[in-house]
Every structure is written in C-alpha cells, then in structure tokens.
Write a structure and sequence with these properties.
6-stranded mixed beta sheet, alpha/beta, single chain
Length: 176
Amino acid sequence: MRHFVTAAILILLLGACSTRLTETGTELPAEGGWVLLPIVNQSQAPRAGERVEALVETELRVRGVHPIHYPVAPPRDPLALVDEQQRFERALRWARSQGYRYGITGSVQEWRYKSGLDGEPAVGISLRVIDVASGEVLWAASGARTGWGYESATGTAAKLVRKLLSELKLTAKVSS
C-alpha cells in the first residue's frame, strides 16, 4: 500500500508541470539589443498575453536581460484591438525599424481555473526568441502547468515562465 501511495504522489507531481524545449544550443548575449514583443493570447482569458509579457520581462531582468517593451499605440482600425496577429506584426515592424537584434515573443494557449471544488489553475505557454531582422527562431520552449486549489493562475504562470526561461542559455557581459 505504501508503494501505491508513493507512486500516486509521484504521478501527481510529474503531471503538475510538463515542458518541451527546442533550442539550437547557441548562447545568446544577455546585453544589448533585446525587445519584448507581444505574447499572443490564444486562450479565452482576456489579456492573458499581456500578463505573461510582464512575467517574462521580470524574469529576463532577473537574469540580466533588459528588454525594451514595444510601444503600445492605439490602432487606427478598431478591429485591430482584438487582432493579436496585427498587434504582433506592428511591434515587429517597430523593432526592425529600431535595429533590435533579439525579440522574445510567444503565445498563451491556456489560462483558466479548472471546474470543481478546488478550481486549480491551469496555464499553457510557449516562448520564442527570434532574430528580429530575419524572423528566424533561435530558441523555443513550451510547457503547461497546473497549480493547487489555493494558487492563482498568475502564480502558476510565473513558475512556468521561470522554468521555461531557465533553459535559455545566456552569456554574461565580458569586462574589458
């Protein structure tokens, strides 16, 4: 019986966070030329992409990357307010015009609370570092995580963003 309980707990812990990484193995410089591009919201939760942008920016700053956030300007077309892809394209054009080298972007696939008594948070996030000039993906990671009934979706997402970005290889500034 003891082994059964141990196995059940292990399965629950392993199922709480799943991550899939795809990377080139290239180290990217932490200093200079980083821009935080929009994180596209594919979930049904309003503004989940913007919430993840704030989490990504904070985690990158902790790791020595100081990304510039894309400017948020109201679009001329009212339909563009709900068109996530248009928001991304505008920000990417701006980043190219400013000469940024690396852009971090991604998407939120899930941001919700499961139904039931505990209402556990569930989040799914994908992140990418792109070469701003070419659009080439230099690093990518995605993952999903569920929290406990007492946790918030933001807290669960913060843990997932930290896990995903911990796999991003960064080089420190070399002193001269």
